[in-house]
Amino acid sequence: MTTEDTQESATLFSLVGGASTVDRLVEAFYRNMDETPAARDIRAMHAAELGPTKAILKSYLSEWLGGPKDYSSKRGHPRLRMRHARFSIGPAGRDAWLLCMNAALEECIEDPAARASIGKQLAGLADWMRNDPDNAHDKAHRG
């Protein structure tokens, strides 16, 4: 097996440093959410005590990046929109979430290509999570 083959089969999870990097990423993300005035409204959607929420996000991101399948084995399909339906998520919430996450990515993911790839995928996911009437994804399905 060549080095190129090994790199192609490696997951983003392993490329970024595995569980320790995901842990740092989630901690930085929620620290950013606490410290960023633009994130006040999305921070208010969370409980004061973030321990359980951090654990869930760490598990989800680990699996999403190609790591252990602990999230699915414990919680089933992510059903992210369903799980977040009780919150009003519009462009401002999406942008605040991305501001905090992109800063965390910058802080925690050393590899520029991996950071860009993860950031691009998370931007698409964050936009899809919007549940406002102007969400282009929903408009396309309403016809």
Q: pLDDT average, as an integer?
A: 88
Identify the CATH class: Mainly Alpha
Distance between the termini: 49 Å
**Outline:** globular
Count of discrete alpha- or pi-helical segments spanning 4 or more residues: 10
Biggest sheet record: none
How helical, in percent, are the residues? over 70%
At CATH's second level, what is the architecture?
Orthogonal Bundle
> Beta-strand percentage?
under 5%
The whole-angstrom Rg is: 16 Å
The secondary structure category is: mainly alpha
Uncertain stretches of 5 or more adjacent residues: 1-8
CATH superfamily: Globins
Overall tally of domains: 1
List the secondary-structure elements in sequence, H or E: HHHHHHHHHH
CATH fold type: Globin-like
Q: Count every beta strand, where a strand is a DSSP E run of 2 or more residues.
A: 0
Pfam families: Bac_globin
GO molecular function: heme binding; metal ion binding; oxygen binding; oxygen carrier activity
InterPro entries: GlbO/GLB3-like (IPR044203), Globin-like_sf (IPR009050), Globin/Proto (IPR012292), Hemoglobin_trunc (IPR001486)
Family: Belongs to the truncated hemoglobin family. Group II subfamily.
